[in-house]
Amino acid sequence: MNQKNKKQFGVWMDTHHATVVGKANEDTEDFTVLGTAGNAGAEHNTSEKNEHNDARTLQHKFFKEILSHMQNAEEVHLTGTGTSQEQLIHYMAATPQFKNTVTQESTSNKMSDENLAAYIAGKFN
Fold it and tell me: What is the DSSP letter of 46?
């Protein structure tokens, strides 16, 4: 399978927001925004254990929302700030649907949707 037909996606993410880019259909070569996901974070709780569990549950829900935009992904490039990219890579590796997905990561500041699409396209060319 050549590079043009692979299901390739890119994600810019931090702890609370993610933007997913990919090819809208197999006939196009241009990357466009496919969707966004958000994570408001856990509410303060008097029990540290419950707060941690709430944060973990919300993070997994956030990851599932991101992955819902990347069905049958073969290659994914993750970029953004913080450690969320690495956590998502580990989450994908533990998920049967994404365990064979090739992942790459880099660090970058927030960028416009157009710049993100161009940045991700450059990573796959």
Answer: S
Mean predicted confidence (pLDDT) in 85-95 = 95
Domain range summary for the chain, segments of one domain joined by +: 3-124
C-alpha closest to that of 8 among 97, 85, 117: 117
Q: Which CATH architecture has domain 3-124?
A: 2-Layer Sandwich (3.30)
What does the DSSP 8-state code read for residue 74? S
Dihedral of CA atoms 59, 61, 62, 64 in degrees, nearest 10, equals 120
Helix crossing, 84-93 with 48-67: angle to 10°?
70
- Compute the half-sphere exposure of residue 6: CA atoms within 13 Å on the CB side of its CA: 14
CA distance 107 to 18: 14
pTM: predicted TM-score of the whole model, two decimal places: 0.90
30-59 per-position pLDDT tens digit: 999 999 999 988 888 889 999 899 999 999
Q: How confident is the model at residue 116 (pLDDT cuts 50, 70, 90)?
A: very high
